[in-house]
Amino acid sequence: MAEEKFPMTVRGKKMLDEELKHLMTVERPTIVKAIEVARGHGDLSENADYSAAKERQGFIEGRIQDINGKLARAQVIDPSTIKSEKIVFGATVVVLETETDRKLTYQIVGVDEADIKSGKVGITSPIARALIGKTEGDEVVVHAPKGEVHYEVLKVRYE
């Protein structure tokens, strides 16, 4: 079985690189010191500081492994190099919500980059899955938790 690729934009890779660097150079050394200090407080079985520090250490180490795995399988895509009429990963899409006449702009990005408040939707989200493969002028139906939402694709760009 081929290893699953993990699509992300150049910006998304940079964000993961920065988070990894922060975890390894700031968080990890800080938590090691906190564990040493907590150990100095005596009986570890009743030491809440030690338990909390060990739990935080587990989280940090898990996140470092998670990021390293994603970066190892990363398929970094620069949207500005894409030439396509169809909507694909990295596209910035302007849609019209037909029921409310609201214009919305979404960019289809990697899962870790998704931030709906800034218009970035993850590749696995219902809106992104509905938009993939469509072109300007197409009608799109998104099966959202609140029910069906109808959109018209107004513009597709890659930047």
Task: Explain what this protein looks like in three dimensions.
With 159 residues, this protein is an alpha/beta fold. It folds into two domains: 6-76, Transcription elongation factor, GreA/GreB, N-terminal domain (Helix Hairpins), CATH 1.10.287; 79-157, Chitinase A, domain 3, CATH 3.10.50. 38% of the residues lie in helices and 26% in strands. The chain is built from three helices and seven strands, in the order βααββββαββ. The protein has helices spanning 10-39, 48-72, 126-131; strands spanning 6-9, 74-77, 92-97, 102-109, 120-122, 139-144, 147-157. Strands 5-4-3-7-6 form a five-stranded mixed β-sheet. A two-stranded parallel ribbon has the order 1-2. α1 runs antiparallel to α2. The longest helix is centred in the N-terminal third of the chain and has 30 residues, at 10-39. The radius of gyration is 21 Å and the shape is elongated. The model has no long low-confidence stretch (mean pLDDT 92).
